[in-house]
Amino acid sequence: MAGAVRIVDAVEMDADDLVAIFSDAVEQYTVTGFMFSHRRVEAVKLQKDFFTPLLRNRFENDQSRIVKAIDESSGKIVGWSALRWSDGNPTEPPKSDPGQSSFLMWYWHQQDKNWRKLTAGKKHVILGSLYVQPECQRRGIGTKLVGHLFEQYDLEKELVFLQTLAGTEMFYSRFGWEVADSTDVDLSEWGGQNRGYGVHKAPQMLRQPGPL
Asked: What is the reported pTM?
Protein backbone atom coordinates (compact mmCIF):
# COMPACT_ATOMS: atom_id res chain seq x y z
CA MET A 1 0.00 0.00 0.00
CA ALA A 2 1.53 3.27 -1.11
CA GLY A 3 1.65 6.45 0.94
CA ALA A 4 3.24 9.61 -0.43
CA VAL A 5 4.92 9.14 -3.78
CA ARG A 6 7.43 11.13 -5.78
CA ILE A 7 7.86 11.05 -9.54
CA VAL A 8 11.40 10.90 -10.94
CA ASP A 9 13.14 9.77 -14.11
CA ALA A 10 13.57 6.02 -14.41
CA VAL A 11 16.95 4.54 -15.31
CA GLU A 12 17.93 1.48 -17.31
CA MET A 13 18.55 -0.63 -14.22
CA ASP A 14 14.83 -0.22 -13.36
CA ALA A 15 13.76 -2.20 -16.44
CA ASP A 16 13.05 -5.49 -14.63
CA ASP A 17 10.97 -3.74 -11.95
CA LEU A 18 8.99 -1.86 -14.59
CA VAL A 19 8.19 -5.05 -16.49
CA ALA A 20 7.12 -6.74 -13.23
CA ILE A 21 4.66 -3.90 -12.55
CA PHE A 22 3.34 -4.24 -16.10
CA SER A 23 2.81 -7.99 -15.58
CA ASP A 24 0.86 -7.46 -12.36
CA ALA A 25 -1.21 -4.60 -13.80
CA VAL A 26 -2.39 -6.46 -16.93
CA GLU A 27 -2.90 -9.89 -15.38
CA GLN A 28 -6.65 -9.24 -14.99
CA TYR A 29 -7.18 -8.84 -18.75
CA THR A 30 -8.12 -11.97 -20.69
CA VAL A 31 -6.26 -10.74 -23.78
CA THR A 32 -2.96 -10.97 -21.87
CA GLY A 33 -3.27 -14.74 -21.87
CA PHE A 34 -3.64 -14.76 -25.65
CA MET A 35 -0.61 -12.50 -26.10
CA PHE A 36 1.70 -14.48 -23.84
CA SER A 37 0.28 -17.46 -21.95
CA HIS A 38 -2.75 -18.36 -19.85
CA ARG A 39 -0.34 -19.78 -17.27
CA ARG A 40 0.86 -17.00 -14.95
CA VAL A 41 4.46 -18.16 -14.46
CA GLU A 42 5.03 -18.71 -18.17
CA ALA A 43 3.32 -15.42 -19.07
CA VAL A 44 5.55 -13.41 -16.71
CA LYS A 45 8.68 -14.97 -18.20
CA LEU A 46 7.55 -14.27 -21.76
CA GLN A 47 6.62 -10.68 -20.87
CA LYS A 48 10.05 -10.13 -19.34
CA ASP A 49 11.79 -11.59 -22.40
CA PHE A 50 9.66 -9.47 -24.74
CA PHE A 51 9.52 -6.10 -22.97
CA THR A 52 12.87 -5.80 -21.19
CA PRO A 53 14.87 -5.33 -24.44
CA LEU A 54 12.26 -2.84 -25.69
CA LEU A 55 12.54 -0.81 -22.50
CA ARG A 56 16.33 -0.84 -22.60
CA ASN A 57 16.17 0.52 -26.16
CA ARG A 58 13.86 3.30 -24.97
CA PHE A 59 16.41 4.37 -22.37
CA GLU A 60 18.95 4.74 -25.17
CA ASN A 61 16.56 6.71 -27.44
CA ASP A 62 16.69 10.48 -27.01
CA GLN A 63 13.10 10.70 -28.32
CA SER A 64 11.78 8.69 -25.37
CA ARG A 65 11.32 9.38 -21.66
CA ILE A 66 10.36 7.02 -18.85
CA VAL A 67 9.37 8.16 -15.36
CA LYS A 68 8.63 6.16 -12.23
CA ALA A 69 6.55 6.67 -9.08
CA ILE A 70 8.42 5.80 -5.88
CA ASP A 71 6.65 5.08 -2.59
CA GLU A 72 8.39 7.37 -0.10
CA SER A 73 7.88 5.00 2.82
CA SER A 74 9.23 1.83 1.20
CA GLY A 75 11.43 3.22 -1.56
CA LYS A 76 9.82 0.81 -4.01
CA ILE A 77 8.66 1.63 -7.53
CA VAL A 78 4.86 1.47 -7.57
CA GLY A 79 4.09 2.85 -11.04
CA TRP A 80 5.62 4.15 -14.24
CA SER A 81 4.89 5.82 -17.54
CA ALA A 82 6.66 6.32 -20.86
CA LEU A 83 6.55 8.94 -23.60
CA ARG A 84 7.85 8.92 -27.15
CA TRP A 85 7.95 11.76 -29.66
CA SER A 86 7.05 11.13 -33.32
CA ASP A 87 7.25 13.36 -36.39
CA GLY A 88 4.26 11.56 -37.93
CA ASN A 89 6.21 10.22 -40.90
CA PRO A 90 5.65 6.58 -41.84
CA THR A 91 8.17 4.11 -40.47
CA GLU A 92 8.51 0.38 -40.88
CA PRO A 93 5.84 -1.53 -38.90
CA PRO A 94 7.03 -3.98 -36.23
CA LYS A 95 8.43 -7.16 -37.74
CA SER A 96 7.16 -10.56 -36.75
CA ASP A 97 9.29 -12.41 -34.25
CA PRO A 98 9.19 -16.21 -34.58
CA GLY A 99 9.71 -16.43 -30.81
CA GLN A 100 6.40 -14.67 -30.08
CA SER A 101 2.82 -15.88 -30.40
CA SER A 102 1.02 -15.31 -33.69
CA PHE A 103 -1.73 -13.51 -31.76
CA LEU A 104 0.69 -11.05 -30.15
CA MET A 105 2.25 -10.05 -33.46
CA TRP A 106 -1.15 -9.84 -35.21
CA TYR A 107 -2.56 -7.72 -32.38
CA TRP A 108 0.49 -5.46 -32.40
CA HIS A 109 0.16 -4.93 -36.16
CA GLN A 110 -3.55 -4.07 -35.84
CA GLN A 111 -2.82 -1.44 -33.20
CA ASP A 112 0.10 -0.12 -35.22
CA LYS A 113 -2.16 0.27 -38.29
CA ASN A 114 -4.72 2.33 -36.36
CA TRP A 115 -2.01 4.53 -34.83
CA ARG A 116 -0.61 5.31 -38.29
CA LYS A 117 -4.07 6.13 -39.63
CA LEU A 118 -4.83 8.55 -36.79
CA THR A 119 -1.49 10.36 -36.68
CA ALA A 120 -0.13 10.22 -40.25
CA GLY A 121 1.72 13.42 -41.11
CA LYS A 122 1.14 14.97 -37.68
CA LYS A 123 3.83 15.60 -35.12
CA HIS A 124 2.66 14.03 -31.87
CA VAL A 125 3.64 12.47 -28.58
CA ILE A 126 2.80 8.85 -27.73
CA LEU A 127 1.88 8.01 -24.15
CA GLY A 128 3.11 4.48 -24.56
CA SER A 129 2.68 3.12 -21.06
CA LEU A 130 1.09 3.97 -17.72
CA TYR A 131 0.97 1.19 -15.17
CA VAL A 132 0.44 1.17 -11.40
CA GLN A 133 0.93 -1.78 -9.06
CA PRO A 134 -2.60 -3.21 -8.48
CA GLU A 135 -2.54 -2.83 -4.69
CA CYS A 136 -1.55 0.82 -5.10
CA GLN A 137 -4.24 1.75 -7.63
CA ARG A 138 -7.00 4.27 -6.87
CA ARG A 139 -4.63 6.32 -4.74
CA GLY A 140 -3.89 9.08 -7.24
CA ILE A 141 -0.60 7.67 -8.51
CA GLY A 142 -1.73 7.55 -12.14
CA THR A 143 -2.94 11.14 -11.84
CA LYS A 144 0.43 12.20 -10.44
CA LEU A 145 2.24 10.49 -13.29
CA VAL A 146 0.09 12.24 -15.90
CA GLY A 147 0.47 15.59 -14.17
CA HIS A 148 4.24 15.21 -13.96
CA LEU A 149 4.54 14.36 -17.65
CA PHE A 150 2.47 17.37 -18.69
CA GLU A 151 4.42 19.74 -16.46
CA GLN A 152 7.85 18.33 -17.21
CA TYR A 153 7.46 18.04 -20.98
CA ASP A 154 4.96 20.83 -21.72
CA LEU A 155 2.47 18.37 -23.21
CA GLU A 156 -0.34 20.94 -23.23
CA LYS A 157 1.16 22.14 -26.51
CA GLU A 158 1.22 18.68 -28.08
CA LEU A 159 -1.12 16.26 -29.81
CA VAL A 160 -0.89 13.19 -27.54
CA PHE A 161 -1.86 9.68 -28.69
CA LEU A 162 -2.36 6.67 -26.44
CA GLN A 163 -3.37 3.05 -26.82
CA THR A 164 -5.26 1.67 -23.85
CA LEU A 165 -7.56 -1.14 -22.74
CA ALA A 166 -11.34 -1.13 -22.37
CA GLY A 167 -12.40 0.20 -18.98
CA THR A 168 -9.61 2.75 -18.64
CA GLU A 169 -11.10 5.38 -20.97
CA MET A 170 -12.81 7.23 -18.12
CA PHE A 171 -9.47 7.80 -16.40
CA TYR A 172 -7.88 9.35 -19.47
CA SER A 173 -10.98 11.32 -20.45
CA ARG A 174 -10.58 13.30 -17.22
CA PHE A 175 -7.45 14.80 -18.75
CA GLY A 176 -8.94 15.59 -22.14
CA TRP A 177 -8.35 12.45 -24.17
CA GLU A 178 -11.12 11.28 -26.48
CA VAL A 179 -11.62 7.88 -28.10
CA ALA A 180 -10.71 8.15 -31.79
CA ASP A 181 -10.72 4.48 -32.83
CA SER A 182 -10.51 0.99 -31.36
CA THR A 183 -8.81 -2.30 -32.09
CA ASP A 184 -11.61 -4.83 -31.58
CA VAL A 185 -10.82 -8.54 -31.46
CA ASP A 186 -13.24 -11.45 -31.24
CA LEU A 187 -11.23 -13.68 -28.92
CA SER A 188 -13.43 -16.68 -29.72
CA GLU A 189 -11.80 -16.73 -33.17
CA TRP A 190 -8.48 -17.37 -31.43
CA GLY A 191 -9.52 -19.33 -28.35
CA GLY A 192 -12.40 -21.38 -29.70
CA GLN A 193 -16.18 -21.05 -29.83
CA ASN A 194 -18.43 -21.67 -26.80
CA ARG A 195 -15.61 -21.14 -24.31
CA GLY A 196 -16.84 -17.85 -22.91
CA TYR A 197 -14.59 -15.56 -24.93
CA GLY A 198 -16.05 -12.28 -26.12
CA VAL A 199 -14.95 -9.19 -28.01
CA HIS A 200 -11.87 -7.45 -26.62
CA LYS A 201 -11.72 -3.69 -27.21
CA ALA A 202 -8.49 -1.68 -27.12
CA PRO A 203 -9.33 2.01 -27.67
CA GLN A 204 -6.97 4.47 -29.31
CA MET A 205 -7.34 7.95 -27.79
CA LEU A 206 -6.19 11.42 -28.85
CA ARG A 207 -5.74 14.56 -26.80
CA GLN A 208 -5.65 17.80 -28.73
CA PRO A 209 -3.33 20.62 -27.56
CA GLY A 210 -4.85 22.59 -24.68
CA PRO A 211 -4.79 23.12 -20.90
CA LEU A 212 -4.83 20.03 -18.71
From this structure: 0.85
